[in-house]
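Tutorial, part two.
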Amino acid sequence: MKQKIILATTSPRRHELAKNMGLEFEIIPSRYEEEMTAEKPEKLVKKLAYGKASEVAKRVKKGIVIGVDTIVYIDGKKLGKPKNKKDAFKMLKSFSGKKHAIYSGIAMINAKTGKTIKDYEKTTVYFRKMKDNEIKKYLETGEPMDKAGSYGMQGLAGIFIKKINGCYFNIVGFPVYNIYKNLQKMGVNVFEYDKWKGKITTHRHKF
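Running the prediction step on this input gives:
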């Protein structure tokens, strides 16, 4: 029997990746107010993801509630979404020729039983050196303004990135494998969903 899935996020990128996994889900935005406390990044993202998921789980009777929170971490500093273009320029300039880390916290709560899983994913991103005019041109596209760290790797920002170490989807904000393995622990099998039913066929070969 398929479990009801609830995403406690308004992010269209997360919605798209969840659809790509074949999941059928309901969107209930969390009312949790984030607090960027001075904690280790892996601890902070798990705390924020759990805060999002638990706020929604209290409002529903059943279903697996998924909360995800992503931050960018460089030189001991946590970066969220830019306040304005000046702030975005400063963030991108700090990445030039350096590496930084992306942390995503994942929290899953079975609203009926209370079973909870907390986890996180880390990816290291290596930027090439960027010229100021490149950064300014990128800012003019508007792409950076709604993204943690002021860039979207799945978009034009890919031209700045030399390599990554870790999960690509974590940079987008929805670490697919991590989500998948923890859904399994919650008793959710993605192959039970209609997108994948009957898609796998067995081919017999004559020798």
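The helical segments are 12-20, 41-57, 85-95, 132-140, 168-172, 176-185. In part three we will examine how such features are distributed along the chain.
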